[in-house]
Amino acid sequence: MALTDLVALSLLPFNWWRQIAARLRTGWSAADLLETLVLERRLDTGATPADLRASAARALAAAELAGAAPIPWSGAEYPPLLAAIADPPPVLWVAGCLDVLRPPAVAIVGSRAGSPYALAVAERLAADLVSRGVVVVSGLARGVDSAAHRGALEADGATIGVLGCGVDLVYPSEHRALAGEMRRRGAVVSELVPGTPPLPHFFPLRNRIISGLSRAIVVIEAGEKSGSLITARLALEQGRDVLAVPGNVLNGRNRGGHALLRDGAKVVETADDILEELNMPSPGAGIAGQPGAAAADPLLACLPAGECCDLDAIVERSGVTIERVLPRLLDLELRGLVRRAGGGRFVRI
Q1: Between the CA atoms of 266, 260, 108 and 136, what dihedral angle is there, to the nearest 10 degrees?
Q2: Element spanning 276, H or E
Q3: 311 vs 180: CA distance, rounded Å
């Protein structure tokens, strides 16, 4: 699938992306889909497929200059959890280490004006999670987000920042040094082509990427109208686990977080609470080649060796819901029993 055509599709309006994903999953080529959508829906700007491809070529050249890698939806390196959401980016732009897209990830989000308590909790949880091999995802915003990124880095772990601008830019600007360290030891990612400025409407949209990359979302100190609640709602729609840290009931800073807890979100006090909710094995358990590594698993049973299967086929064969299939496939991948193929498909090793 031509990368230039996928980038061109990503330049179409956001409200087209769900339809783009649905058609790509049914086997449309990116080139045919671009031509058809422009003909069907007539861009308000009057842009033609040729115009969009020219803009895509400029975006790819800018990415190369910025040291950013475009990961197409059809590529083996595209995160399978993200590929499975209703409206995944046709291209994910990554500045940093591509390897951090592979391990299981947990998002930590919260108030941009976090209290000292919230910042300390975010740093501690992030540090404890990365010590267990989990990647920490957040939005590189002020407050809880940046505290989570710093906690992960200070514990020599990996962290991913999801931006509301191109990966060649940093917003807010005071996080330039933090973003630079994340590029060296983790990654910053975006669905937006390089050079895209940080406009207000991009930030609510990028929240679905934060949750889409993650197996669970931990909310720390969210007010009643916090953007973190948008991320939590998106996470639930995507079949992810939502957890929350209880806070001070006197200052009103965490009313949104407490509402999540009342609605059934799991209480988080330590990283163990998160790992327990995700049913993640203790370090060293189930390593490929050791007894029990290939214990009878319904997912392995429905994956003939060497045959690529997409998520729909695996769900149909196994009878396991897609919300449960994805985390288990990632566990099997970490154990060396399956690997990812392109387009959100998996193959048994």
Answers
A1: 40
A2: helix 271-278
A3: 35
Digit-by-digit pLDDT tens for the chain (349 residues) are 589 999 999 999 888 888 898 898 888 999 999 999 988 877 666 789 999 999 999 999 999 999 999 999 888 899 988 988 888 999 999 999 999 998 899 999 998 888 898 999 999 999 999 999 999 999 999 999 999 999 999 999 999 999 999 999 999 999 999 999 999 999 999 999 999 999 999 999 999 999 999 999 999 988 777 778 888 888 888 889 999 998 876 677 788 888 888 888 889 999 999 998 888 754 444 333 333 333 556 677 777 777 788 877 887 777 777 667 777 777 777 667 887 776 667 888 7
pTM of the model: 0.80
Minimal CA–CA distance to 162: which of 184, 146, 185, 181?
Answer: 146
Per 3-state DSSP, the chain is made up of helix, strand and coil in percentages (nearest 5) of 45, 15, 40
Structural domains in the chain, CATH included, are 3-96 (no CATH), 98-278 (3.40.50.450), 298-348 (1.10.10.10)
- Report CA-CA distances (Å) from 155 to 121, 136, 205, 323: 14, 11, 30, 30
| Residue tagged 């390089």 (tokens) | 194
Q: Under a CB-based contact definition with an 8 Å cutoff, are residues 166 and 195 in contact?
A: yes
Burial of 290 (0-12, 13-18, 19+ CB in 10 A): exposed
Q: 36 to each of 20, 30, 31, 40, 53, how far by Cα in Å?
A: 11, 10, 9, 6, 14
**Cα–Cα distance for residue pair 7/32, rounded to 1 Å:** 14
Residue 25 CB neighbour total at 10 angstroms: 17
Coil vs helix vs strand at 103: coil
Closest listed residue to residue 218, CA positions, set 245, 249, 256: 245
Q: What 3-state DSSP class applies to 107?
A: strand
Gyration radius of the chain over CA positions: 20
The crossing angle, in degrees rounded to 10, of helices 30-41 and 49-66 is 130
